[in-house]
Structure formats: structure tokens, C-alpha cells
């Protein structure tokens, strides 16, 4: 093993379920996942992150503390991964850390995307160089700063003979279209798990709808489904991206105003809604195979809804392509750290809308 090619990737996504951390070897032409783990967020930090993701009082004071707490959790996850892998910190070339998105405003007067987590503190705690702040360079060149994973998806999942879609169902869902003889494409389709998680937490005090059981207990509300699908976001063409700060309970409650639906029926409809927005996006392209990653890969009701809307497509998970669906995004940020070191552009202008392809990230040294 060439130790100079060992990178750690950290991803904490819009589902707010915890921290995915992976150890990846880039010594060979194909990245090799060596080890991985999920460190769930402490309940207090998860609640603080959910709150800071929406406008509120005294945000700067709260943010300073949350960023330090988040870095401490990232460092704890790295420590556990190293111990689990039998690897020393000195053997790691760099950590690629996405940070936790609390705002994504690609259509603001001055577009911005804000990921928190004190990267200086993370470097100091781990003794490992950190590459972070991946999105703002793309935005500086006119892009939306998202999605950033398509270049990685192309590197490890492309098949020259088939139209293939990599569908990441996190809090927000995004897709990468790997179409033979066509430019690489990708964009956010809209809500993945975020509304499902919010609704089940509100009514069942559960962080997510395990195996889609709550949705399965309800009945579809066709009129509500049509109303949800009328949001202008779904009529936009790419490049486009969004965030959980837009698709959240306040947005849903606006559509539920004046209604008195059973909570399980709303959950059932939200499942079909998320699947419907993904299917609407995918159906516009000659895709034969869909490979799902992210937390949504473990929701059979959501996947069954997607299959019913796309009967012509094969739907599986990225495990069939050699990477478990839990770890694809964290691997992507290990790859982006590697790309930073190799001076490989990490964005795709056709995906983000940037004027040019650029090397992404910022370096944070441990000393």
C-alpha cells in the first residue's frame, strides 16, 4: 500500500443523521474504499444544526459554538476510523471535509453556499492537513456550487455502453447522468428524505421513517401531491440546486393550510412526491439503469414508488457497482481532497453553471 495515497473523506449531509467518514486509497487508478463508519450526531448538536439552518435570533453567537462542537465531532469520527483501520494519522495525506450546509442560496442577489465546521480546529485536533470549503470557488466563477459529486461519479461509475443515472437520495436528492457520447450532467431534483424526516419526527418523534413504515401505513392524497408538484423549482432546467432550508416544514405547512389530513396519509404522499420529482427529472433522459446511494437507498417504499413511475428502468444501488450506498458521498470528498493535491478540477461547468473548470477547496494546516 502506498501510504502517500491515503485520504479521509468526511460528509455530513442534509439529512442531519450524522457524520460519514471513510478511508480511501488512491494508489491505483480506481479509488479503493478501505474502511468506513457513521458517527451519529449527539441529539443536542443535531437539534442545534436543525435550528441554525433556519433564520433565528443571535445566530453569530450560536454559530461560533456550533462550529467548534462540529469540529470536535468530526475529529472524534476520524479518531475512531483510524483506530478501526489500524492506521496512524501520520499516514494520511489529507482529510477532505465537506462541512455541514446551513444555507444554500444559489439564486440570491449575491449567490452563496455556507458550510460550517471549524476546519482549523479539525486540523489541530487530528494533526492531519484538511481540505475544505469546496463550494465557494465554483460560485466565484459563476456556478451554483452544487452538485459537486458528478465528476467523482463519472470517475468510478461510468459505463461507456449504457445510459446510467447515479441518484443520491439524501435530505435533498441529486442525480448524475452518465450518458454515452454526451456531456456529463447533474443537478438537484428536489426533496429526498428531508420532508419525510421532518414529518415523521414531528408526528412520531423518530429521526427518520425506518423502512418507510409510517408512509406504508397511509393512503396517497392525489390532490395534495399535485399541489406539491406545482412548485416552480421542478419546472426549472439545470444547472439548478436547492437545500433543506427551502424544502422544510414551513414550506409543507403552506400547502397543508386549511386541510385536516391524517399524518400517515401526508407521509405516504410525501414519499410519492419525492419519488415523483426524481422520476420527472430522470424521464427526460435516455437512462437504462439507476443506481441509488444515500439514506433513501434503504427506504423500500420510496424505491417502490420510484420504480412504479419509471417501469422502463432498472433500479438498484451503488453496491452493485462496488461502493455501498452509505459511503459514496464521503468518498467523493476524499476524492476532492485528492483532486486538490493533484490540481484536478473538481467542478463540472455544465453541472454547476460555472464559467470554467477549477480546482476546488482550501487548505488548513495542522501546525
TrEMBL record:
Q: What Gene Ontology molecular-function terms does this entry list? A: ATP binding; kinase activity; phosphotransferase activity, alcohol group as acceptor
Q: Which UniProt keywords apply?
A: ATP-binding, Carbohydrate metabolism, Kinase, Nucleotide-binding, Transferase
The reply on keyword ATP-binding is yes
The protein's annotated pathway:
Cell wall biogenesis; peptidoglycan recycling; Amino-sugar metabolism; 1,6-anhydro-N-acetylmuramate degradation
> GO:BP terms for this protein?
1,6-anhydro-N-acetyl-beta-muramic acid catabolic process; amino sugar metabolic process; peptidoglycan turnover
EC number(s)? Answer: 2.7.1.170
The reactions it catalyses are: 1,6-anhydro-N-acetyl-beta-muramate + ATP + H2O = N-acetyl-D-muramate 6-phosphate + ADP + H(+)
Sorted alphabetically, which HAMAP family does this protein's record hold?
Answer: AnhMurNAc_kinase
* Function according to Swiss-Prot or TrEMBL: Catalyzes the specific phosphorylation of 1,6-anhydro-N-acetylmuramic acid (anhMurNAc) with the simultaneous cleavage of the 1,6-anhydro ring, generating MurNAc-6-P. Is required for the utilization of anhMurNAc either imported from the medium or derived from its own cell wall murein, and thus plays a role in cell wall recycling.
Stated name of the protein: Anhydro-N-acetylmuramic acid kinase
Source organism (scientific name): Rheinheimera riviphila
Q: Which gene encodes it?
A: anmK
Amino acid at each position: 500500500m502506498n501510504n502517500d495515497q491515503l485520504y479521509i473523506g468526511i460528509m455530513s449531509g442534509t439529512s442531519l443523521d450524522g457524520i460519514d467518514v471513510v478511508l480511501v486509497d488512491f494508489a491505483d487508478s480506481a479509488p479503493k474504499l478501505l474502511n468506513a463508519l457513521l458517527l451519529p450526531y449527539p441529539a443536542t448538536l443535531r437539534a442545534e444544526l436543525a435550528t441554525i439552518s433556519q433564520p433565528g435570533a443571535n445566530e453569530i453567537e450560536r454559530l461560533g459554538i456550533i462550529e467548534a462542537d462540529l469540529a470536535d465531532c468530526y475529529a472524534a469520527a476520524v479518531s475512531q476510523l483510524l483506530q478501526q483501520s489500524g492506521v496512524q494519522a501520520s499516514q494520511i495525506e489529507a482529510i477532505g471535509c465537506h462541512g455541514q450546509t446551513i444555507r444554500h442560496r444559489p439564486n440570491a442577489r449575491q449567490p452563496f453556499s455556507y458550510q460550517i465546521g471549524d476546519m482549523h480546529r479539525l486540523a489541530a485536533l487530528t494533526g492531519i492537513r484538511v481540505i475544505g470549503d469546496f463550494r465557494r470557488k465554483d460560485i466565484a466563477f459563476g456556478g451554483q456550487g452544487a452538485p459537486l459529486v458528478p465528476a467523482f461519479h463519472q470517475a468510478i461509475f461510468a459505463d461507456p455502453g449504457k445510459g446510467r443515472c447515479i441518484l443520491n437520495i439524501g435530505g435533498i436528492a441529486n442525480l448524475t447522468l452518465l450518458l454515452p457520447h454526451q456531456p456529463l450532467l447533474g443537478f438537484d431534483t428536489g426533496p429526498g428524505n428531508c420532508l419525510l424526516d421532518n414529518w415523521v419526527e414531528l408526528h412520531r418523534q423518530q429521526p427518520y421513517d425506518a423502512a418507510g413504515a409510517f408512509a406504508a401505513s397511509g393512503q396517497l392524497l392525489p390532490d395534495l401531491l399535485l399541489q406539491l408538484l406545482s412548485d416552480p423549482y421542478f419546472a426549472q432546467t439545470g444547472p439548478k440546486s436547492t437545500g433543506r432550508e427551502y424544502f422544510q416544514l414551513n414550506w409543507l405547512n403552506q400547502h397543508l393550510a386549511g386541510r385536516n389530513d391524517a399524518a400517515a396519509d401526508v407521509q405516504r404522499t410525501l414519499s410519492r412526491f419525492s419519488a415523483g420529482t426524481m422520476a420527472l427529472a430522470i424521464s427526460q433522459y435516455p437512462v437504462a439503469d439507476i443506481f441509488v446511494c444515500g439514506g433513501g437507498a434503504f427506504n423500500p417504499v420510496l424505491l417502490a414508488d420510484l420504480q412504479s413511475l419509471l417501469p422502463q428502468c432498472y433500479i438498484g444501488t451503488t453496491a452493485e457497482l462496488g461502493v455501498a450506498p452509505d459511503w459514496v458521498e464521503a468518498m467523493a470528498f476524499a476524492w476532492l481532497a485528492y483532486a486538490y493535491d493533484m490540481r484536478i478540477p473538481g467542478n463540472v461547468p455544465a453541472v454547476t453553471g460555472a464559467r470554467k473548470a477549477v480546482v476546488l477547496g482550501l487548505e488548513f494546516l495542522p501546525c
